[in-house]
Amino acid sequence: AKKQGKNCFQFYTREINESERIRKKLYKELKKALKENQFVLYFQPQLNIHTLEVTGVEALIRWDHPERGILSPMEFIPFAEESGLISAIDEWVLGEACRQRADWKKMGFSPFSMSVNLSARQFYNHSLVDDVQNLLKELELAPNDLTLEMTEGTLMTDKEKTINVLKRLGKTGVSTSLDDFGTGYSSLSYLKFLPINKLKIDRSFMSDITEDVRDAAILEAIFTLAQRLKLDVIVEGVETMEQLNYLKETSCGEAQGYFFSRPLPVSEIEGFFKRA
Ligand code: C2E
Ligand code: CA
Ligand code: CA
Ligand code: CA
């Protein structure tokens, strides 16, 4: 038994060393990716449910890895958050998304808002509001050209701080959206005092909305609540015509999902835009 225990221990340390090695490699690669501009933004359209006009696009990061090709954010954002590299990545995303919005503005497309995902670290960073304002000014963007998406998890961390940041963001005129709404934390009471503009309903509610009466009941309660609180609502994860038709009967304003389009690179998303 003693001998076996020792083997186990050796096996265990070898595993730790192995994962440590992988983490170090990933860290190095991510730093290189930042330096060599290997990140790209894809864009997914957001549409007015009734007119089907494009009201916005969400910027979603991808890593164009030199050997592994296009990588999903799920493969590197969690590690970037853990290791602190997220700050530099976030800074790049916000800047790049705003520059792209400005380019599209110059190209004369009808107005729509660029949605950017903020990590918790970025949201609580002291310079966030200044960074946003500087970008708008430098790129000659209007506040409603930009929407910031924060998850419930981020906003539930520190009530006082959260309200303070949201109020300051509100004064800049940019829109704020509560992402993945309805998951994790139960945040209905928070809605009372969170100065946000929009709820983005998590896609888990959409998945079997046309069959599951419970999902529909919850969703309709959220729509009513949002209406009473004068919050805009967007639903993500719309994949079928049935789901869209269901939404058309509700007070939900906007939708996003594979039914309309997957996230696309710059050159392909432009086909969705109209000339002003
Ligand atoms: P999210 O903010 O909830 O983004 C929506 C995710 O749902 C995207 O995955 C999108 O491709 C996917 N999606 C869109 N429509 C549908 C649909 O109809 N069905 C299904 N099943 N999925 C759909 P993606 O691009 O892989 O991003 C995953 C997550 O990574 C995002 O979730 C967000 O939390 C994070 N992320 C992406 N880009 C950034 C970024 O620039 N900064 C930060 N901090 N996080 C990011
Ligand atoms: Ca999002
Ligand atoms: Ca989401
Ligand atoms: Ca999510």
UniProtKB/TrEMBL annotation:
Residues of the EAL domain: 23-276
Protein name: Diguanylate cyclase (GGDEF)-like protein/PAS domain S-box-containing protein
Boundaries of the shown chain within the full protein: 457 to 732 of 732
